[in-house]
Design a protein that fits this description.
Layout: E1 23-28, H1 29-47, E2 55-61, E3 65-80, E4 83-89, E5 93-113, E6 117-140, E7 146-156, E8 159-165, H2 170-200, H3 202-206, E9 212-214, E10 219-222, E11 230-231, E12 235-240, E13 243-246, E14 270-275, H4 276-288, E15 293-297, H5 311-317, H6 319-324, E16 330-336, E17 341-345, E18 348-362, E19 368-387, E20 390-407, H7 418-437, E21 441-442, E22 449-459, E23 462-471
Antiparallel strand pairs: 1-12, 1-14, 2-3, 3-5, 4-5, 5-6, 6-7, 6-8, 9-10, 10-13, 11-12, 14-23, 15-16, 16-18, 17-18, 18-19, 19-20, 20-21, 22-23
């Protein structure tokens, strides 16, 4: 896999000029340098497959006459690329240059002259000061994934030194210049095509980008590119859709991404920016799917809690409940009535949710008798962090505000239930939500990519993930 990042990561990045990018990613010079290490090793392996064909022919040598010759079994015994560099050409692509490369080859030679005299031996060929320069373009394919291609390449063989072994020494000078030229041409013809093959080998890896990442039965996230890469002197940026959708139903939410810019940092290999738009699109999708509701029963309340979901406990605060439905267990239905709103401020992520709580008494025949409906306004703080290749988190309750929407048991003071519902939310609802958040939401990744030493900051309108990366296998 060549140029891991130029290209393997290139598929993630940020485009400030693209207004509808929900997720931005920046590949820095440090990331390119890591990719360079992997890429050079890949090119080196590819160049070792150079196949030097057998060379044969006839030369007229005075005073001997015609000399038939052949050079066969030519194989590479050593190849090194000791000096290389990756560079970025703004708005163009990635350049790769290799200097002072060398190739050592070994083969056999054979001659026949004066019709009956034969001679043979072996030879060693040392190629030095080999240079390769190429430019790689990064574009998008029809699936929204990045694709790379070589746009130009030049290879030049510097010095060629041939040493013959065995046979008559006068033959050496005869063939040195000829072998030099023939092998130089054979090598130069194959180098650029092999480099092009090495670059093309990246594309199958780029196609593993999870442009449509499944989250669960309700949702998937689209990470397709929304514009061409933006290449500067120091980084490669792309913009990704970064939007949650109902599985199989791509309906746009009634809001759009707010433009944001990644900070100018380059201490890590890769920077992800996850906008508030992306997170809010999740709320839109789950609310639209009817997934933001929860039935709460008494078995979800810790056994040591003084609050029980029965008419006796609630009768303490609303006496008519116990009078009308004595000795019955209760059930609560908590559900949202509009999309939750996630707000990102420096070091602070909050969720505002509007919903209702409907209380039921459970009759002996399991039918539900409605008791009351409360309007509920809830504020929670959320701690977000990166776990492996996912964005995960947990919530803590800030406050709740309640008002009476409807009663089936007569009027009562809602404030008398404040503490009861705070406890219910803390011990029954929040743990359920956190258990779900722990499953996480997939980040845009490729193949066997791992994030290393990741850190997350909550900034104005977006989450910033700073990380190094590693590829295994």
């Amino acid at each position: 896999m060549f140029l891991w990042c130029v290209l393997v990561l290139v598929n993630l990045v940020s485009v400030d000029t693209v207004a509808n990018a929900g997720v931005k990613v920046r590949l820095t010079q440090k990331g390119l340098e890591y990719g360079q290490q992997i890429g050079i090793a890949s090119i080196q392996q590819k160049l070792k497959t150079i196949n030097v064909p057998d060379i044969s022919g006839t030369e007229k040598v005075d005073p001997i006459g015609k000399v038939q010759y052949s050079f066969t079994g030519i194989q590479i015994v050593n190849l090194g690329l000791p000096k290389s560099a990756l560079g970025l050409v703004p708005d163009t692509g990635v350049t790769l240059s290799i200097d002072n490369a060398y190739i050592n080859l070994h083969g056999n030679w054979r001659v026949k002259y004066l019709r009956i005299i034969k001679d043979s031996g072996s030879f060693d060929l040392a190629v030095s000061e080999l240079t390769i320069s190429t430019t790689i373009a990064v574009t998008s394919d029809d699936t929204g994934r990045p694709t790379v291609s070589m746009t130009n390449c030049a290879a030049a063989v510097g010095n060629v030194n041939v040493k013959f072994h065995g046979g008559a020494s006068w033959l050496y000078n005869l063939f040195s210049s000829f072998v030099n030229k023939a092998l130089r041409n054979a090598l130069q013809k194959q180098i650029c095509p092999l480099v092009a093959d090495s670059i093309a080998d990246i594309n199958p890896h780029l196609k593993t980008l999870n442009v449509l990442a499944k989250v669960d039965q309700y949702a998937e996230i689209e990470y397709s590119m929304v514009g061409s890469p933006v290449i500067s002197n120091t980084s490669i940026d792309l913009g990704l859709k970064g939007e949650f959708y109902n599985t199989g139903q791509h309906k746009e939410p009634p809001f759009s991404p707010t433009p944001f810019s990644l900070p100018s940092q380059d201490t890590d290999m890769l920077y992800f920016g996850v906008s508030a738009f992306t997170i809010n699109s999740a709320g839109f999708v789950y609310n639209r799917a009817g997934a933001l509701h929860l039935y709460i029963t008494d078995d979800m309340i810790p056994s040591g809690s003084p609050i029980r979901l029965n008419t006796k406990t609630f009768g303490t605060f609303i006496p008519q409940i116990e009078k009308m439905y004595p000795g019955l267990m209760m059930k609560l239905l908590v559900k949202t009535v509009k999309d939750p709103l996630i707000t990102l401020e420096p070091n602070n992520m909050t969720v505002q949710a509007s919903g209702t709580v409907t209380a039921y008494a459970i009759q002996p025949n399991s039918t539900l008798s409605p008791l009351f409906v409360l309007n509920l306004e809830v504020s929670v703080s959320t701690h977000i962090y990166v776990s492996e290749l996912k964005l995960t988190g947990n919530m803590t309750l800030n406050k709740i505000d309640m008002s009476l929407a409807k009663t089936y048991v007569g009027p009562f003071q809602v404030t008398s239930l404040d503490n009861v519902f705070k406890i219910v939310l803390k011990v029954a609802v929040i743990p359920k939500v956190n258990a779900y958040l722990q499953k996480g939401y997939p980040l845009p990744v490729i193949g066997k990519m791992q994030l290393v030493n990741s850190q997350l900051q909550v900034l104005k309108d977006y989450l910033l993930i700073e990380t190094d990366v590693q590829f295994t296998g």
